[in-house]
Amino acid sequence: MGSVRILVTEDDEDLLFAVALSLRGEGFAVDVAADLAAADEALAVNSYDCAVLDRMVPGGDTLDHVRRLREAGFQVPVLFLTALDDVADRVAGLGVGDDYLVKPFAMDELVVRVRSLCRRGAIGPPGLLRHGDVELDVGRREASRAGVALTLTPTEFAVLQLLLTRAGETVSRADLISHAWDEMADPKSNVLDVLMTSLRRKLRPPQVIHTVRGIGYRLG
């Protein structure tokens, strides 16, 4: 499947680390924020499949913030984490967000709920992307070239999906890394080069992904 990106906002450092570690261990790309300002900035500049937000963080109540974002058209599925367990709090949370998990909680349950929200809220490019004889079925998470199925890792799928979505354009290294990896990835590292070598090998000749030196890659 393609890379699924999650934002986690939590002011308890230990819990934030534990949640991010659990989600990354299940294959999610995870960005973290410790306060409302950082979360708001992340939501403004990145595309997320789901947001896991602690209710009360430095800067305010994320429920009120999401309510304002919803009024402006914000559609990312939101799961609220909170110690507030009154019925009124649950109703308020579900009225604004998509799920509500009371602390303390089991990490396994959180992972299952996040995965469910990502499936439920999946929106994005057309279901079928094609360039020449390369085809990507986004809905089924299947890739092929000249009718032959390709076995891609989630990150390879995400990179190829972005290249196909922007076929004919040069896609920068920064855009590819931002799309396929989480904020822990070092843009100066060679992770993208290693992935491209593997992806080109799987796609087989003739070469379809071309390097634009000093900039990034494009489909040719």
Keywords for this structure?
single chain, 220 residues, alpha/beta, 5-stranded parallel sheet, 4-stranded antiparallel sheet, 8 helices, elongated
Describe the structure.
- Strands 2-1-3-6-7 form a 5-stranded parallel sheet, sandwiched between helices.
- The relative contact order is 0.12.
- The chain is built from 8 helices and 14 strands.
- The longest helix is centred in the middle third of the chain and has 14 residues, at 107-120.
- It has 220 residues and is of the alpha/beta class.
Shape: elongated
How much β-strand is present in the residues? 15-25%
Strands of the largest sheet, in order across it? 2-1-3-6-7
Assembly state (oligomeric):
single chain
Task: Write down the secondary-structure element order.
Answer: EHEHEEEHEHEHEEEEHEHHEE
The percent of residues in helical segments reads 40-55%
Distance between the termini: 24 Å
Query: What is the gyration radius calculated from CA atoms?
Result: 19 Å
Structural class: alpha/beta
What is the number of strand segments?
A: 14
The count of helical stretches stands at: 8
Unreliable segments (pLDDT under 50, ≥5 consecutive)?
122-126
Largest sheet entry = 5 strands, parallel
Look at the structure and give the mean pLDDT.
85
